[in-house]
Amino acid sequence: MWIDSHCHLDANEFGGMSLDVAEAAAQVGVSAIVVPAVHKNNFNTVIELGGQRADCFYALGIHPMYVPTSKEEDLLLLRKRVEELMAGTDTQKKLVAIGEIGLDYFVSALAQSPLKEKQEYFYTEQLKLARDFDLPVLLHVRRSQDIILKHLRRIKVRGGIAHAFNGSAQQAQTFIDMGFKLGFGGAMTFTRALQIRRLATDLPLSSIVLETDAPDIPPSWLREGANTPAQLPRIGAVLAELRNLSLTEVAQATTANAMYVMPRMQRA
Q: Nearest 5°: CA angle at 143, between 96 and 227?
């Protein structure tokens, strides 16, 4: 049993075959997929995926790379949708987090004023939303670890996942102390990714969840085509090799970690 804690199953790269992609993952042991929204325009799509497959869960949020085209009223819409979903039907109960939210200072235009300030505003407003509804957050963190943490100290949330983690050991420990798990995926499979592989080896196993970020961040063996959630067991095998553990130990631990940090998965 594996959980893909971060997969953009609704992406255009899947050519309208999202349900087939999810089924292929299920056939290799991926028992749950968390699909984060990125913009108001795909809120309904990820919710519908939750209704179409029992193994699909979703998060709602506005991704930092979509902040430039987002408006203040989109935050109000997000709050309204979350409020409706929190007390709804079985499909609606499959909302497990606020995400994907965060800060991206890797893209130079986003790191400059006024977009830098707009990113921070959208990030902090969504943290407040997560706090108000006691939901975990799925964090996008690119060259922004310290600013992400600064706001987490100020706006207390119930934890979540630092997606595609690529910070220092000290930053990792700070996230863990705040109740976060750290997401590892395809980047960990490259032998040259020394820092990521070191963290994956040395951090407590209880702090790690697995993800694909499909269709992005393909593992080392995927030379062409989109990444898919079916790659997750093989990514898990890399983690098992790095830590000298069995596949079963890694699958059980990372699944338990994902269920713990997103407790609504268990209720749904």
A: 55
